[in-house]
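Annex B. Sample input.
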Amino acid sequence: MSTLYEETRHLHHACEAHPVGQRMADGTITAQEWADWLAAFRAAHLVIDPVFPDHLGRVALLNADLSQLPAPRACDASQALASRINNPNAYNAAAYVLHGAHRRGGRVLASTMGRVGFPTTHVVYTQPAEAEAFVKALRGRVELAESARAMFSGLLAVMDDIEAMAQRGSHD
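Annex B, continued. Sample output.
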């Protein structure tokens, strides 16, 4: 039997291999790029946080992190991503992708981001065991695969926007 992770593994790897993902992993992402990335997470969490238990809420933590960074730039892909989270499968798939990212990759990145002075409180859970159980329960829901792939594709589009802004040297 397939898992949601197996159905989306190639997209996990695509995010890690993206130039923005690589800069996150090696700690060379700029404060502006980190702010833009966290703003995309916030846009999605504004949609899903009201649907799930309070202990999973990330908006306040993302706001705290963003308050220590430059103002995020407008990112069409962030808004497009959030607008596609509009039905139960999309809510659950977004929760799987985002909380999975915070619980796994985010915790790994937290030490790297901390070394370069960037905030990462959004990856800290007051009920980590419950958050982990939540993500694991979603992992078995293969019917969410299409929505999870859309979520990952949306995050890749955000990375593309951030990369394009970096290439242009945009500060708008």
